[in-house]
Design brief:
With 488 residues, the protein is mainly α. It is built from 19 helices and no strands. Helix 4 crosses helix 9 and helix 6 packs antiparallel against helix 15.
């Protein structure tokens, strides 16, 4: 096992793939899409968007966010072809805006990815608990089921990334198959006919669009993770760019189509009311009317979809631990890798954090008036929405960092990839960040000021702490070693 001190190489000067790198473009696409969890979005995200926004233009919301993310990918992909580092956001922001801002981004990204991954255990524990009860009559606490998922994630987290990609590839393929079958069936049944209400601007550009876009952006979380695995790909100069474009395009189009198919399947005049009444059960309830067996299979696949997302975000968090440890932002022990080239200390740290937080919520939930819904309404809802706030903000900052880097390093590029695309993406992401912040009480379904203010404060606070820590590192360190080469 090896460790690395902070250096030009560690901060991101054209890193090369680590020995034994095996991740292909297809494998990386599966890793990215797994984090977005297609079935989870159809079953949970789309009904929630319909219910809270009260609008039918959900499909256009996915297209709009997808277009902004494609603009973001223009510069992001080009930068990833020249700078390969598992720190991704932090490294790109360091090159584009300065090391102190990059270190702040590293701490914010660490907190956000950990919040997203840990929060998913709440939904996974609840869903698997209900499924086990219905199948066998055995009623285990949600945290026990979460513990079973934790073991799977912890084991895969210290294995070769290619193995995780293959597991996720199977799960994602099954998700697409089931969601695609549902969409086709919905269009065939179509109780009110195949309508185009979901594609009308009048159903999108109205009051409530802010909430719609906030929830829509949350469905894309994980799209940016391609660069995190750049050092583990076979062809880092091309793989990340290809995988990011492919994943964003597939996810945007697939989400738009499937959310429209859900609207047609239920009926445009009743989709909002049904979503408000049934929530995530809407899809399973609809399938169960025609095939209880298929509804059961879909429910089980929903659980594996959550496992896939847990694995994807675990790997992302572990690699941020690794990158910041290698750079000296965190203790050097985090830069250790095992024989499988996995960041073993970072992975173990993420697993320990998950176990501790889940244990705290397990104790806090005893006797709660929320009953079985406690882990969903608290751990899942609070943590994942706070993470969405942090990651969306980081995408916006990275957009302007890409612009700064491109203007300095590649003045020969045309205006579109160098300035126009990243600036438009940055403005769009900052707008969505503001919408998430303004509508945070709706996203967490709570007016409790402790929840509404504390969770966003965790995100803001981690960025502030990162800025302070970055300033201290720069004051006490050798700037010749700390700064990226092209900023000296």
């Amino acid at each position: 096992m090896s460790t690395h001190k902070l250096s030009k190489h560690a901060v991101g000067e054209a890193d090369v793939a680590r020995p034994g790198a095996t991740l292909s473009t297809a494998g990386l696409v599966f890793m990215i899409i797994a984090a977005s969890a297609p079935l989870t979005v159809l079953a949970g995200g789309a009904p929630t968007s319909y219910a809270v926004s009260g609008l039918l233009g959900i499909p256009l919301g996915y297209v709009a966010i997808g277009l902004v993310l494609i603009l973001f990918s223009v510069g992001y992909a080009r930068m990833s072809s020249e700078i390969q580092n598992s720190g991704a956001f932090y490294v790109y922001i360091s090159h584009g805006l300065g090391l102190r801002q990059g270190i702040a981004a590293a701490i914010l990204a660490l907190v956000s990815y950990n919040l997203m991954q840990i929060g998913l255990y709440g939904l996974f524990g609840f869903t698997s608990q209900i499924a086990l009860l219905e199948l066998t009559g055995i009623d285990l606490p949600w945290w026990v089921m979460g513990g079973i998922g934790w073991v799977v994630v912890a084991v895969l987290g210290v294995n070769n990334i290619d193995f995780s990609a293959k597991v996720l590839g199977v799960i994602v393929a099954l998700e697409f198959l089931v969601v695609g079958a549902f969409a086709v069936a919905g269009l065939i049944v179509a109780p009110e006919g195949i309508t185009t209400h979901g594609w009308r601007a009048s159903e999108f550009l109205t009051p409530g669009v802010g909430v719609l876009l906030a929830f829509t952006m949350a469905a894309f979380m994980g799209f940016e993770s391609g660069a995190i695995y750049s050092e583990e790909t076979r062809d880092p100069e091309r793989t990340v760019a290809r995988a990011t474009y492919i994943a964003v395009s597939i996810v945007a189009l697939f989400y738009a189509f499937s959310s429209w198919a859900l609207q047609v399947a239920v009926g445009h005049s009743s989709i909002v009311e049904n979503a408000q009444q049934l929530g995530p059960d809407l899809v399973f309830d609809w399938i169960g009317r025609y095939s209880p067996a298929l509804a059961l299979v879909t429910n089980l696949l929903f659980i594996t979809s959550l496992i896939a997302a847990l694995i994807a975000f675990h790997n992302a968090a572990a690699r941020y631990f690794f990158s910041t440890g290698r750079a000296g932002v965190l203790p050097a022990a985090f830069s250790r890798i095992n024989k499988a080239q996995a960041p073993v200390v970072g992975s173990a740290c993420q697993s320990v954090l998950s176990a501790v937080v889940v244990a705290i919520f397990a104790l806090a939930g005893r006797g709660s008036e929320l009953g079985e819904l406690f882990p969903v309404m608290t751990l899942f809802t609070w943590f994942t929405n706070a993470a969405a706030l942090g990651l969306t903000f980081l995408v916006g900052v990275t957009s302007f960092a890409v612009c700064g880097w491109a203007r300095r390093v590649h003045p020969e590029w045309g205006a579109f990839p160098r300035v126009v695309a990243p600036v438009l993406a940055g403005v769009g992401m900052f707008a969505v960040t503001a919408l998430i912040l303004v509508n945070f009480n709706l996203m967490v379904d709570s007016e409790n000021p402790v929840v509404v203010w504390v969770m966003p404060a965790v995100i803001v606070g981690s960025g502030v702490i990162g800025l302070i820590w970055g300033a201290l590192l720069m004051r006490t360190g050798d700037l010749g070693r700390l700064m990226p080469k092209d900023m000296l």
